[in-house]
Amino acid sequence: MDQNVFDVVVVGAGFAGLSAARNCQSAGRSVLVLEARDRVGGKAERQFDAEGRAWDGGGQFFCRDMTELSELVRELGFAKARTWLKGDYRFYPPQPDEVVEAADTAAEALRERLRTLDPDDPALGNETVETWLSRWESTTLGKAAFRSMVEGLWCRPLSDIPLWFLVSNDRRNTNEENELKRFLPEGMQALAEALAARLGEGVIRLGDPVAEIRQTASDCTLTLQSGSTVRARQVIIAVPPVAARGIALTPAPSPGLARALSAWSSGSVVKMLLRYERPFWRALGASGMITAPGSGSFSCDASLEGQEEGRLIVFLGGPLAEEWAACSEEARRALVLERLTPLGPQAAHPLDITARNWIDDRYSGGGYGDVITDAEARDAERLLRTGEGRLRFASSELSMAFPCYIEGALLSGRAAAALTLSALAADDVRR
Ligand SMILES: Cc1cc2nc3c(=O)[nH]c(=O)nc-3n(C[C@H](O)[C@H](O)[C@H](O)COP(=O)(O)OP(=O)(O)OC[C@H]3O[C@@H](n4cnc5c(N)ncnc54)[C@H](O)[C@@H]3O)c2cc1C
After folding, report:
1. Which atom of ligand 1 is nearest to the CA of 267?
2. pLDDT tens, 15-37?
3. Which of 187, 203, 228, 418 has minimal CB crowding within 10 Å?
4. 260 annotated among ligand-binding-site residues
C-alpha cells in the first residue's frame, strides 16, 4: 500500500471528529485529523472572563444518561461539578408561582402531545411547528412557554422548523436526569484536548481548513486552504452539515446527497457568563433558572463550588439571539439584564458580562446545532449518515441519540467510524 495514503482522514476535530478518529485508530487504521481552527473541540470552546478565568463558551452541561460522555469523563480522569438546581424556577416578566406552574404544565403537555406523533407519518406533511401550535387548545402562557422551549433549544423560529423534524429530534433526547446536572470545572475544551492527546503526536493538523475533497477510483485527495494535499482511502467529514457545504466535493455529489446537505440551516445562539460577587439569588430561594415565555432565553447557575462569586449562564436562542446581535453594546446589556429582573434588583449589577456569539459561526455554523428547514428533505439525515463513495459524514446533528449535544457528537463519530471500517475491510479484500 502507498505509505503516503492514510487509511482514514477525518475532517474536523470537534467531539464527532475526535470520536471517529479514536474508533478508527483503535481498529489499527492509520488516521489523520485535519482541523480548520487552531484548536480542537469545535463547539466546545474555552472563553475567558474579565479576570482571565476560563468558562465554557459553548457545550458545557451533561447528565448521567449521556453515557458515552460520562464514560469519557471518567476514563480521562476529569472532576465533575454539580450545577445548582435547587430553588424556584422563575419567569420573565415575573409571574406568581401558581401561574408559572400552570404554564409549565401546559407547555409540558404540548411537548408530550408532540412526542406521541410518529415522525414518519406522511400525514404530518410539510406542516411547521408554528402552524401545529396554532391548531392546539392551550393557555396563552402555556403556548408561550412551549415557544420559548423550542426556540431556546432548536434556536430557530417555529415557522422554520418542520413538525416531523422536531418530533424526530425531540424523541431522541431520552434523558431522565436533568441535562444541566453536571459540568466540568476544567471545561469541555479541556476534555476534547485530552481526547486529542490520546490520538498521539502528529495525528491532528490544526489551522488549515479543508477546501476540496476529490475522489478517484482508488482514493481521495484533500486539498487544504494552504494548498497542501493529503491522500486517504476513506474520508470522514466530521463537520456540521451547513459548514460541510463549504467543502467542494469533486466529482459533485449525487443530487440526493446535494439536497441532503442543503436542507439544513444553522441555529442562532448566544451564550453569556454574568459574574456576581456571590450567588445572591440562592438566599432568595431562586435557582437562577429563568425562562421568558414567548422567546428563547434561559439562565442557570453554574457557580463553582468553593468560590465565593456567583456565575450565571444566560442563553439566548433563535430570533432573540438575532435581536441581541443587532443591538449596540449598551442595548445588549439592557436586554440581558432586563431578563434577570425576576432575581431582584441585585441582578442589575454584575461584575462583568462576557458573551460568545455563535450566529453564523464560520466553522461550526451556529448552535446548538443545525436544523433541517427544508420540510421535504425527510431522508436528509439518512443520506448523510450513509455517505457516498469514500465519504462518510459525522456530526452531532446526525446522531440517533442526543442530536445537537456532545453525547450525540461522540455517538455520531463512532457510527461513522464503524461504516468507514467496514468499507476499508471490503476494500482490503478487493485489493
Ligand atoms: C452555545 C452552545 C452551548 C451548548 N451547550 C451544550 C451543552 O451544555 N451540552 C451539550 O451536550 N451540548 C451543548 N452544545 C452543543 C455541542 O457543543 C455540540 O453538539 C457538539 O460540540 C458538536 O460537535 P461536532 O463535532 O458535531 O461539531 P463541532 O463541534 O462544530 O465540530 C466541527 C469541527 O469541524 C471543524 N471544521 C469546520 N469546517 C472545516 C473544514 N473545512 N476543514 C477542517 N475543519 C473544519 C470546526 O472548526 C470544528 O472544530 C452547545 C453548543 C453551543 C454552540
Report:
1. 53
2. 999 999 999 999 999 999 999 99
3. 228
4. no
Query: Rounded CA gap, 363 and 41, in Å?
Result: 12
CATH homologous superfamily for 5-42+186-263+372-430? FAD/NAD(P)-binding domain (3.50.50.60)
Q: Return d(Cα 71, Cα 62) in angstroms, integer.
A: 12
* Cβ 364 under 6 angstroms from ligand 1: yes
Determine the distance separating the centroid of ligand 1 and the alpha carbon of 274, expressed in angstroms: 23
* C-alpha 190 – ligand 1 centre gap (Å): 14
- pLDDT (0 to 100) of residue 2: 59
Which residues does the chain have with pLDDT short of 70?
Answer: 1-3
Ligand 1 centroid to 43 CA: how many Å?
Answer: 3
- How many angstroms does the Cα of residue 20 sit away from the middle of ligand 1? 14
Which fold is adopted by the domain 86-177+269-357? Answer: Polyamine Oxidase; Chain A, domain 2 (3.90.660)
Give the residue carrying C-alpha cell 423560529: 157
Residue 368 near residue 404 (C-beta atoms within 8 A) = yes
- With a cut of 0.95, is the ipTM above it? yes
Q: Which of the listed residues 269, 270, 364, 410 should we mutate to test ligand 1's pocket, taking the one with most ligand atoms within 8 A of CB?
A: 364
Domain spans of the chain? 5-42+186-263+372-430, 86-177+269-357
pLDDT in tens, 237-267: 999 999 999 999 999 999 999 999 999 999 9
> What pLDDT was estimated at residue 430?
85
